[in-house]
Amino acid sequence: MSGGTLETVRDEELPDRLPADHHQRSSARDSMRNLPVVLPLVALVIAGFALQDVDVSRMTDLGLVSVLPGAYFVALAVMASSFVLALRGGERPALLAFQMLATIILLYGVTVPLQDEPSFNVVYRHAGIVDHLLGGGALDPSIDAYFNWPGFFILAEFLVDLTGLDSVLPIAPYAPMVFNLLALPALVVIAKAAVSDWRGAWVGVWIFYLTNWAGQDYLAPQAYAFLLFLALAGAMLTTLAGHVDGPQRWWLRFAAAARKLIGRRADAPTGPDEVRPPEVTRLERSGVVLTCTILLAAIVASHQLTPFAALLLLLTLIAARRTTARWLPMIAALLIAAWLTFPAVDYLGGHGRELVSDALTVGSTVSANVGQRVSGSDDHLTIVFLRIALTSVLWLLAAYGIVRMLRNGRSAPSHALLAFVPLILAMLQPYGGEVLIRAYLFALPFVAILVAWALFPALGRAWTWRRSVGLLLASCVLMTLFLFTRYGNERAFLYTPDEREAVAYIYDNADAGDVVAAASTDVPWQDRRYDDFDYQLVSGLVQPPLEPESPRDLADRVARALDDRTEGASNAYLLLTRSQLNYEHMMGSLPWGTVRDLEEGAVQSTGLQLVYENADAMVFEVREVP
Amino acid sequence: MTTHSVRASRPLLRPAVVAALSVVAVLAAAAAVDPVVRVIALLLFLIFGPGLALVGLLRLRDLWRELSLVIGVSLALDLVVVSAFVYGGNRSSGTALAVLIGIAVIGAVGQVLRRAPGQGAVS
């Protein structure tokens, strides 16, 4: 009876209530749909205000995170919420691209408002090469290794010349944002080639941006070459992808057996699905092969390591029979060989023996890439261990992602291989202690999509609030880790106008052929007169002392070494800066002594005369050598 | 996101964008404009222009795939052309830009000529 009454009441109210409810629900749905449009803007505004009050001079060896205000982290949380909300409903590519744009500005542009001068010493060196070319300087391969792979610098000089700028430095701070934004289409292509559900693909791209701490996207040849590498990878995994039949080689049998074993252990269905490559016309295929050849040519001309990473990618796909472009590895190998034989023959002549002797020396690679980096202050060690831990966890999650994909009846064999194959580069060369970072970067586009699957499998099937919260929390953790790992060295790499003025003093007063030295690599110099001066580091001039010495003895020793270097034909300058002291505090002292002692001794030494001084820098000139 | 419908309804969109980018690049290089505007205008052309003209000829069906190749090919062609001039002993940036614009215009014209039958152009 009561039930019937209730039903009656409901029935009577329905005509009025239903449209209202419907209207409310629809309005709430609209608000939810529009939130991801508004929230990134809110996040950017909050971050903009938060960064106004940052005092970088208070930064510790933990880097940027030590001075970032709480409001900036609120902005990151808002951004993460926005991305999570953008994954609800159907795919809205423009909106998702907008999320990525805002994230890139937040994460990769965070130091732009904090930089009085462009950050990172290597940027100045690169600007110096552009300046050298801009002034009509020769493309002389004997100057240094950069001139053996000058493509990127030629392009940068072209841009600077056309725009009428007097240096590439004014645009340098924006390079990380621009490079990461330009990488977006290729990253989406790579991600969508692995998983058929759009949410999984976009979460993979999102994870890439939240874990790309390698910092190789500054104004540098490797950043440019990496963009081309991504475009090449995207083409190989889509237009030129395909399962090619042929004799069952031992590695294919081994891979099939491993996949079966993992699949059986993981209760995977037999014959897992893969994302099918798109159907392509003959014109499209031929055109893409041609474009890949152009990409390879530009990669080969612009960077030392990326051509080998590209060749490795091509060979991996050929060996796994996952591409129909069988000739591309041959073309890549020919281009590399031609470049090493002609334009880079000087470099190979000078360093060939060293390169061969370093090859396959895994011990020295591990030592140079890991062992030698685990040093410095306690805070800096925290950063180093966070980097090692994050990288290791991501690679482990990628392995778990492969298993989880198999368990869900999916597989992405090309991505699974390419997530680990770049580690082969680490076996071939220490690359100045940087090869592991580079291998991480080359693997990251593939690792990221597998990590997405490890954490959030089969997102296409169900998108629940629980998963939304999980992704939000994971995003907040990764964003915070990103700030630690990516900007952990910022204390040393943010320069002041005073430091630059000291460098300008040397540019204005030193003559061509003069020796210009600094106590560590962390100096914003060489952006002018790149080939005019004999730039030196103290570590290259003096040996470690045989017995303890006073600061003055150290300064006298350095003065003598500088004087010897000039051979009496030119002058010598020693530049000591705030950043060098910070760098030493962060990384630990060098075998020859400390910057602090050298600074103290240089003031007392008769061999060095203070010729310029400001709050952050001192310039000494070698005079009466004791 | 497929580009089929966009391409069918607006077959001249890409050639028009290439033409606009080329004109903006010429104006930016030649006219006395603010350096920031000049940098942005020239970068837009160098990043998208040559690639959009050439990759557009392939009629790719997916916008992300197309955009990925457009950016890659543009940057690669810029480098190849400019380096060829420098290694050939000609370091005139204006000439290199003119060649890049020429490549872009040829590609754009090719796209117009390759419009589907029934759209008033050669197939």
SS elements, strand count of chain B = 0
Q: Care to count the β-strands of chain A?
A: 5
Number of domains of chain B: 1
Radius of gyration of chain A: 28 Å
Mean pLDDT of chain B: 88
Briefly note the structural class of the backbone of chain A. Answer: mainly alpha
Task: Describe this structure in a few short sentences.
The complex is a heterodimer of chains A (626) and B (123). Chain A has 626 residues and is mainly α.
Q: Please, could you describe this protein's structure?
A:
The complex is a heterodimer of chains A (626) and B (123). Chain A is mainly alpha-helical and 626 residues long. In chain A, 62% of the residues lie in helices and 4% in strands. Chain A is built from 24 helices and five strands. Chain A has a five-stranded mixed β-sheet with strand order 2-1-3-5-4, sandwiched between helices. In chain A, helix 8 runs parallel beside helix 11 (306-319). In chain A, 50% of the residues are buried. With 123 residues, chain B is mostly helical. Chain B has one domain. Helix content of chain B is 74%, strand content 0%. Chain B is built from five helices and no strands. Chain B has helices at residues 4-9, 13-30, 35-55, 63-87, 93-113. In chain B, helix 2 (13-30) packs antiparallel against helix 3, helix 3 packs across helix 5 (93-113) and helix 4 (63-87) packs antiparallel against helix 5.
